Structures are given as C-alpha cells and as structure tokens.
Amino acid sequence: MRLATIRTADGTRAGRVEGDDIVLLDASDVGAVLRSGRDSTAVAMADGPTVAWADAHPAPLVTHPDKIVCVGVNYLDHIAEMGRERPSAPTYFAKYRRALIGARDDIALPPLDVSTHIDWEAELAIVIGNEVRHADRSEAEAAIAGFTVLNDVSVRDYQRRTTQFLAGKTFEGMTPLGPVMVSTDEVGDGSGLAITTEVDGVVKQSSNTSELCFTAVDIVADLSRIITLEPGDIIATGTPGGVGAARTPPEWMTDGTVVRCAIDQIGETHNICRR
Amino acid sequence: MRLATIRTADGTRAGRVEGDDIVLLDASDVGAVLRSGRDSTAVAMADGPTVAWADAHPAPLVTHPDKIVCVGVNYLDHIAEMGRERPSAPTYFAKYRRALIGARDDIALPPLDVSTHIDWEAELAIVIGNEVRHADRSEAEAAIAGFTVLNDVSVRDYQRRTTQFLAGKTFEGMTPLGPVMVSTDEVGDGSGLAITTEVDGVVKQSSNTSELCFTAVDIVADLSRIITLEPGDIIATGTPGGVGAARTPPEWMTDGTVVRCAIDQIGETHNICRR
Q1: Which of A9, A160, B32, B167 is the most buried (most CB within 10 A)?
Q2: Do residues B28 and B6 lie in contact, with contact meaning Cβ atoms separated by under 8 Å?
Q3: Can you give the residue range of the structural domain that contains B146?
Q4: In a domain, A104, yes or no
Q5: A66: which chain B residues are within 8 Å (Cβ-Cβ)?
Q6: pTM over 0.95
C-alpha cells in the first residue's frame, strides 16, 4: 500500500495511490490515518473519490508529526567522507514541523545574508504506525508502518557554528518529505534499496540502504528507550556519501538548483531551490 | 499577570493566579490562551470559577508546544566549569513534548540498566506570545509573552554518547516546566533574576540571569532567522554553574531525590525523582 497526503481546495487530504490515481481517504493527512488506529486492510480497501496522481500536489507526508527525529553519521560511506569513526550509538538530532515541505514544493532558501551553504542529504525515513516504548526488536519492527523519502537539506554554516546540528537542520520550508509512504508489507524492513541524489541532473549521492550502520529496527528500539514513539512520528535514518560539503571544492545549492532524492521501490522528492 | 495550567477532572485548564487563588479561564492550557490571540487586558480581567492555588496540580505550563528549543552553554559561570570557550553563537538543541511534566510532578527516572547519570539544570524559559520571523530586536522583545522555570533534567551518559545532546535531553517525563508564566509587564526582559537549584535541601546552583551570554531577546531574534516562532513555543535559555556532572566526584539524582529550581519573581519547580 502506498499512502500520500495531497493539497486540495479544502486543505490537505490523505489518499491511497492506486496505479495512476489517488483514492482520497477520510483523513487530513497520513498522520491522521495512522493515529486513527484504522486497520490497514480497511485503509487498503476504503473507497473514495479519485484524482489523477500526476496532477496532485503533495503536502508533507505527515503534516504535524509529534516528532521528527534525524539520525546523523549513519552510512558507512558518509562516515568515511566526513572523516568520522564508526559510531557505537546512533546520533540523534531534531527538526521542527515548520521545516517540512511537500515532495514537489520549492525549497525556500534563506536570504543571502543568512547563508549560502545549502546542501542536500537523501534519506530513507521511517514512518511510525503504532505507539511503542521500551521495544524489543520484534515490537520495534511492528511499530514501523512504512518508509518514505526525506531530503535533509542542511544549512552547513549554521549546522557547524556550534557543536549542535539543530540550527542548520531546521530552517523553515527546506525539508522535502514524501511523496508516498510505502507500507512494510511491500517494502520490507527498508534494507537493500538503492538511494540516490541528482543535482541539476548530475548524480551526487549513490548508495544503498544496506550501508546503514544502525538499521530502522535498531533505531526504533533504541529511541523507544528514551521516549514513546507514536503514530505519524518521522525518523530520518541518515544520508550516504556524496554531500556537497564533502566535495572539493564544496558545492552548494542556489536559486534555481533542481534536486531529486530517489529511493528504489519508494519514490522521490523533486524540488527547486528558490531564494 | 501570572498564568498557569492545572489538571482538573475534565482535563487540563488554564488559569490566572490571583493571590491565593487561581481563576479558571476558558482554555485548555496557557498555550491555548496565547494562540487564541486574546488581548492581555481581557485575559487579566476575565472572570471564572476559582480554586485554591495551594491545592492545584500544575500540568506542564504549555502542554503541546509546537517547539521546545533549549540553549546550551549560555551562562558564563557554567561555560567556565565545563571548560568551554565563550560562544560566538547560541547553541540550540531540542526536546520533544513528551519530555515535559508539571512543576510538582515526579520525575520519571529511567530504568537502572538505561542510565543512573541524572543531573539537574535550572533554567529561565521564554514563553512566546506572538508569531515572529526575521525579527529585529524590538520585534523579538514584543514576541515574548513572559517567563517561566524549566528544569532541564539531563541523562548525561546519553547526552554524551554522541556529539549531539538530544538523546540525553528528551527522556520522557523528566523535564518540569512551570508552574506559572509571569508576563513581561511584571518581570521585564528576564534579566537580573536570582536563579538557584536545591537538591535535597542543599544549594547546588546559585547564579543570576544577568550571567547569560545571549539574552532572551538575542535568542528570539536569532532563532527567528531560522524558523517562525509561534505562540506557546518554549525556549529554555541555559543553565548556570553547579550541575552534578561538573562536581568532583560527579553527583547524580536517584530514587527519592528532591530537586527545587527557583527563579526570583517567577516561581519554582519542586519535584521528586522516582524510579
């Protein structure tokens, strides 16, 4: 099952992608579908008006997640390019809701006098389906509703002006999320998927989710020892090698840059940067 | 004006503290009062049923903030004790909503096999009253509704297991917030206030908000370049010297520890740690 959140004249609306169409569901977004506790078979069978998926305007897949957790330094190849050691625990930082945009929306670049160091980061994102706390591995696995794509667009000078990444990671309107969540019965545990970024048509990141140090299940189990995860929570699992900051010379996105982050079997974000 | 959020049989409720009483307002929490855009004079004059403040059970002052932003390394004396340099920009990290508890609630210690390194951090917290983005200093000042107390209880081994503080700062049910927000017309810009922590009756932190490197207005203006701040957002401004981790030997809170964080003219959190 592939679920999406689209914009309509009456606000956002969840839907189920069926071939070239999207069947609209009785919920404002995918987060609301998950929080409603609806049986997934019922969601898969629900009838409703349809619109053409090609004409749809995707909103952030979950419009108001309780949490957006990001994992840093989690791909073996990215760890190597950033000159870091293999970690013994996942590195977590946060984003706030207002960072999120839809999978086709423009990325809102900050004013030139704030920053020009704008980088891409393709990430596999976990969508939580059930409340879970102190989970063992099987509970962690069962808590994952599916996976989507998140481009963790980063303002590198803000990320690095102190020890803490948050400032450079939560700029408003800069984090594409979506366009679809693919459920685990279709895509499994999220491993073994090709993940790529193209910037203005040139491949910049090309890896595979099997390069993850900490898998989706590892991360959910670990996080659940800290705090309850709940339906609609989004967990971005980190980015592979090939970011702009690690290139010589560094490469930044600017007004008009087109960035595509694609994950095999899931989908892609496709956005234009606008100052 | 002093606003609080208390627990009632029908859920949480905002109120205005008047002497020994609290006048209940038509809103579920202080966040809802601020988001409603009500004129502060109207809030100050609103009538309603009263309950004795001494008998009230404070909930987290804002139960569902859109953002909880924390500032690290922001007191000159704490910077010295942690061996850090004076920062050129504020250090930001986040907490999630489920970290928050009321100002008299028990602090939920994690299981012994998760962590025993539980520390205190008294903080002056800003409560945002108006939406603000790219604020100059006067807009930043006007966006602050008032101030409250936050005990940024920290799980030090989780805070330090990676470079990013989030994991050690957002444990569920460990961050007391409240019990009252004192409006800026009473407490000014939050500077010049004594701030203390007592642990089992012994003073551990004793400083003054004039020791802040980055003032409340500095922080609001800077954050607003990153993201829109909105009514009910909470910004904890950092903690002074005297934390348990910086003592020789280190001191940790354990089952039964009583911790009071007090700020002159505002109030105090007063909590017992329970495993």
Answers
A1: B167
A2: no
A3: 60-274
A4: yes
A5: 96-98
A6: yes
